[in-house]
Fold this protein.
Amino acid sequence: MFWCTLWCAAFSWGSLTATSVRAEIINYAEKGRPEDPGLELLQEDPHDIILFKESAGGGWVKVHLLELPGRRMPDSPNGSLVFRIKGIEAKDFTAKWEDIEMIDFWETRLERETTERIKNEDFPGAYPFLSVLIRDYPNRPNLRTLRGEFLFRDAGRRAKQGEVGPALAMLEELHRYAPEYRSDIVMQAISRMTDLLMQDLMNKKELELAQKLLARLEKDYFGKPVTSIKKWNDTFYQMALQRKEAAEKELEEGIKTNVFQNYRNARRLSRECLYLKPSIEGGKELVRKIDEIYPLVNVGVLQTAKDPDPTRLDNWAARRAGRLLYRVLFEMQGAGPEGGEYEFLFGDTEQTPDRMKFSMILAPEKLPPPLNSVNGFFIADRLAERVDPGSDVYFSPWAAAVNAIGLDGPKQIDCTLRRPNVLPSALIQMTVDGSWFGGKPGSPTGDYRRDVVEGDVIRYTLVGKQRTATQPREIVEIRTESASDGVAKLLQGEVDVLDQLFPADAVRLEKNRSVRVAKYPLPSIHMLVPCSDHAYLAERTFRRALVYGTNREDILSGELLESLEVPGCRVLSGPFPAGLEDNDPLGYAYDQNIQPRRYEPRLAKLLMTMNTNQMEALAKRRKEEVPELKPIRLAFPPENLSRTACEAIKSQWELLDLKIELIELPVGQAFPEKGQADLAYVAAAVWEPIIDARRVLGPDGMAGSTDQLVGLGLRRLEESKNWKDARDRLLDLHFIANNELPVLPLWQLVDSYAYNRNLLGVGSDIVSLYQNAEKWRLSL
């Protein structure tokens, strides 16, 4: 009777297409059983299957989910069941309960498919069925056991295949989800997997990860029978104990012989001991004792210095290391509302209200050796040499500023100026070497000497007595492969300080409680500096095309800042700092009204065509050959920030049909030698534009510009009588530089340093990392 009713209903739908009929036919049959669709079952809508008794004609039908109490057949069914067949939505059908053999419920089928696949170790096939059960039927009574069986057996399969990490993850998930499931066996399996994983980490020498894993296991399985925890705790303890005993022996030998290497070994071993087992008895006390006897600080750097010089504009490493080896006559301490704040090395300074006289008052009795043997007559002679064009230390801005140099007794030097000068101390940032005190020219005068150079490691050792009881007797610079490698070494304790961070790394490290991150108060100015006689780079139109063809905003925000917001980092339109915020006095040389050129590759191509036409026309008038457009050699320092930027610039310029060759400079070199490259990527410390403008743009500066407008702008700047004149003329010079492009401005970056919180006295708002090195103190 049921099948007659069904066929009548189907026949009455005269509009059904052949496809529709075929689709409906698979939803019911007059005999047999439905085929197993396998994984394709999950592509069907949820449904139940009613199977009829042979006495009622047999067959089966797929129906919409039945609304039965508890989603099961009644214990004593009577009467009729009303349902709707899949594909015949408009009509209700009825069957007597006495004609129904069974109902194959949807969730039961899912459970059956899951169980069968788990039994056959088809875990990828079982997973989607189990996922649907967890999502749609979380309260099924058998689900907990089914899920536990899946996790346990799949973990076993993975363990046999050597997939220790995934196997452990599944076992731990099983323990969290169903702790009662085969608890003893599961805990034994977790112990075995953790043992294998710990051994693998130890074999790979990944001690940090091993310790983190062990610490987590101790926390998660406290009081539970995971035997691997005790085993590896004992292992780490024995390793730590061995290092502690070795450190004590090295320390004893160092005290006996005063050999620095023994102290270095003792420091390394004691810290390894504490790293392996922070709670080891006497570990912290040993580290403190060694730090008191031989304080040593490891500094992670992106570049080691080849020729240390604290006054270098274009070489971060030389400027940093130079502060350890040399002192400067006038050392910049920070930025103030009217330019830099300078400290006179040998005493104090005075300037008359009309700014026409600048005096240096020496106080040698307050200075340590060899500075206390300063000779006022010698300093006066050195200042005079800075005026002589034939001298190696000649500096034209100083020559243009000073009219006379005299002595008022042996302890006072008076400089009469040609015109009022706003910042005469900035004009005489001279490196003070040993020749100032009767020593060898170029010999160091700072607290430290370069001791040992071992590959990427340079040791600077203290000479003479410590200024303070905690002053490091040794500062070790360790070159890291990249900024991220440096961060890893800092977090692992291999270095105590990082002198320069990738901006994005600085943002992330600020969240770490064991590390302090601080910003240098003065940003670095990044630019491309022409450094060869490349015929096309000599043309302003071509240089302008390169600027338009460089998506500086994209490189800065995407490549260097990694899409993070870092205040103060921005694209520039000139070679001077723009300040870190609105109305920042630091940006006194930057005209905020001059917007950086946008990225316009079509305009760049047009300008290149115009430049070619101009050069062809000029060559024709002169009856010369048109210069060949040779590949542009772009040089950069050997560190990953500059490398990343230059690789991005190269890819963008190649879209302009230019051939670009990247040249990585040797370690310690920041600017190419003559003939080595055509453009140099430079991160310059343009901290005092009123002075540094000539050092960047002048004919003897980095750019070596002979442009008449640039030269005029520099001369007018040096004739400034007050801060208003200086600022106005710097803005004029910014305008000139933006049009003439003696350098190609890129962006300014706010540089940061980071150090372990156990290192005290580093200070904030320091211009140079080693500005307060004599006050550093290790504290555990």
User: Anything to note?
Assistant: The chain has six domains: 2-104, 110-225, 234-294, 328-437, 448-520+758-778, 524-750.
